[in-house]
Amino acid sequence: MTASVTGQARAASERQRSIFKVPLSVALSVLVALFFVAAAITPAALSTHSPFDTDLLSSLTPPASDHLLGTDDIGRDLYSRIIWGTRQSLLIGLGAMAVALTSATVLGFAAALAPRWIAEPIDRILEILLAFPTLLLALLFVALLGPSATSLLFSVGIGTAPGYARLIRAQTLKVKSSGYVEAAWALGHPGHTIFRQHIAPNAFRPLVALFALGIGQSVVWASGLSFLGLGVAPPSPEWGALLEAGKANITVAWWLEIFPGVAIVFVALSFTQIGRYIQDRLEGTLHQ
Amino acid sequence: MKRIAMTARATSKVAAIVLLAGWAPLPAFATGSADQDQRVDGGTITYVHQQEPPCLWGGWVQQAYLARQVFDYLVSYDNGQIRPWLATDWSQSSDRKTITFHLRKDVVFTDGTKFDADAVIANYPVWEKGIGWHGFTYMQGFTKVDDFTVELHLSEPNPEIYNVLANGHYGFQSPTSIARNTSEQKCLAPVGTGPWRVEKWTRGAGISFVRNDAYNWAPPNAHHNGRAYAQRLEWRFVPDATTRWGALVSGEADVAYQPPSVQWKNAQRQFQTLSFVATGRPQGLSFNVSRGPFTDQRVRQAFVDAVDRKKIVQAVFKGTVPFEGNGSLSKTTPLYLNVDDNYPFDPAKANKLLDEAGWTARDANGYRAKDGKTLEARLPFNQAIIDAEGAVALQVIQDQVKNVGIKVDLIPLTQTEGFAGAYSKPGDKEISFGYWVWPSPNILDIVYNHQLKGQPNGNNTTFFNNPEIEEQIIDAQREPDPKSRQQKFNTLQQWFTDQAVAVGVYNFTYNVAIAKNLKGLWQDQGNGLLNFYDAYFVKE
């Protein structure tokens, strides 16, 4: 009994130490990510003004106590617009990753496991798509679907899918030829059981980290497309649209470019950092 | 000396019109007769412009800007006066339906074809096909009298016909090119008699023009005759205003179209500037009067009462663009009526009118509703016509009408979508927003006539259909007596304002900033287009 209690205490202590082993950068990234997630869930609780209310008498007001991050050219509170824009920017990032991973999973497994006459064409198509830069593919889909939040989400998602599909294909092929899968075949397990119990979980593992890494990247791509006027329509406070709207006034109102830019950088960095940390942990090579 | 006298008269006329309206523009020319001594022959002028039209010529004012560099015209428009150009003189029949033009005999197209009566006749079907609203000019065609005399036939007397012919749309192309060149060649590199010819159009980038060395038939309001001073003109398409401004500041461009308003004071300090309040119809709100909530005059009036238009224009454009209350004619259009004091900002009155109109219920989002339907308006806008600052003004309008319970959905359209006809049918939208550059009050005929050649008139964005008023417009247009004509157009403008069929917001204003070493550039007083023919560099 005593030995058991001591063992539990040791385990708890190790867990605690392990928590403290989380690098400071990761801890800060989690805090930043949590802040933006909270802003996306309850923007009204964190904002100080309506993101859409104009006040022509307060246009281009520098950051001050009544407008923490200043106002835009028609007097809208920038801090509140960034907070409200978080939901749209993060949803586009998350949605794009969901679209990318869903389509990549189907294509990747099909390319690795389907009969040759199905797998080969998929493989070739993926290779052709990979020849195009991601942003160019996304631009193509925005041109086809028209500028909107939904089309941004799908464009970025579809644009990034080929890379993930190739990764899933490679991972699946590796797992498929591993000893434990061959052993499962030898033991007479049916194919769907092998897929469910061995192939899918092992092929998916690297995607957990990629998902977190991809959110940050998708937010950057989506903001980039909005900045080019190919994203969300005004007066939406999506971050790329904020950057686009602010650039005409950059010489007289620096805050209109700096703060939305900082928000994008913070989100991209924090999710990337978290993704890398998860990746390292999964690979068992956590850097201290 | 003659040139200086003309420009002074031009400036005073435009200034008189706009000062009456409480807004003072800059003179529409970058002068420098003293700089003539310092003139450098040749050189390349680089101009950065916003919109890239599908063809070099056509019915859009952006095409007129380009066409004017390559084509010449029968007559020229010189601050309210019509003066000769390719036609040396003209006369009209007693019924005012036939005009006889005598043509210059020394004019040659850049492909070597001679300009004569046959060239004029060959161009008429091209105009008819390529200019969408051509039917409103009441032209029926030209007939040849002799090699250098033509008659223009009209179905209606039209005192505005000379303004129309002087406008950038009605230039002449080589009949050889019309007969032999492909549609694409005629679209991208039409052959004219003008001071420039197209060397190359690189889609998405710009057009390279080279001067026509044989040019020797400039209009009388030009500053010189003979070939253009500069050797080349590079017309670049740069949609973003900040980038255009950056190109000018960095010396990459010599002339920048529509710098950001926030930079206008800098532009005036560091560069030369030109500004022209376009004639025609201003940037304004056109309500769909054929279906939906704005068929009720009270709802239209309430919408206008709820918007502080003067303050919006001042805040967004920072004095670079004047407020315009008149939704039918802009300040510089002949026979304009100033209605700037109609519909002052009055949200209380707007609420009262909406209550009276029965929009008393509220939906879950606080917008007004009637019979379970939200008071909602779709407002699509073409981003090639409404620039980024115009879009900001629309966002303020959207926010202000929300305060009285009206929901506005802003729908930005690309140039291609807009011109392909997206959101152009009566069932597609409740409000339109846009301008129309046109040098005469017969713009009312173009934008309020419900039909064009028996088909629905696509320029009628209010979907207005009132035969009685349409007849009054034609009657005003025909009226030969200047006093009665003014009276008739005043009555019409006041009627459209009172009915709130269309109300103005701001005047489409063609602002440009010019490098200090480029002189002689001037703006046509018909539609503000830049005349690069007279522009020259000076030694720095």
UniProtKB/TrEMBL annotation, chain A:
Q: Entry's SUPFAM superfamilies?
A: MetI-like (SSF161098)
Q: Which InterPro entries match?
A: BP-dependent_transpt_permease (IPR050366), MetI-like (IPR000515), MetI-like_sf (IPR035906)
Question: What stretches pass through the bilayer?
Answer: 24-46, 90-113, 125-145, 151-168, 207-232, 252-271
Q: How does it sit in the membrane?
A: Multi-pass membrane protein
- Please tell me whether the keyword Cell wall biogenesis/degradation is annotated for this protein: no
Domain ABC transmembrane type-1 intervals? 86-275
Q: One GO BP annotation here?
A: transmembrane transport
For this UniProt record, the keywords arranged alphabetically read as follows: Cell membrane, Membrane, Transmembrane, Transmembrane helix, Transport
Family, according to the entry, reads as follows: Belongs to the binding-protein-dependent transport system permease family.
Name used for this protein in its record: Peptide/nickel transport system permease protein
Automatic annotation (TrEMBL), chain B:
Q: Which GO terms describe its biological process?
A: peptide transport
Q: Where is the signal peptide?
A: 1-30
**An annotated GO cellular component:** outer membrane-bounded periplasmic space
Q: Where is it predominantly found?
A: periplasm
Name the SUPFAM superfamilies on file. Answer: Periplasmic binding protein-like II
Keyword Isomerase: yes or no? no
The name under which this protein is listed is Peptide/nickel transport system substrate-binding protein
Which species does this protein come from?
A: Arboricoccus pini
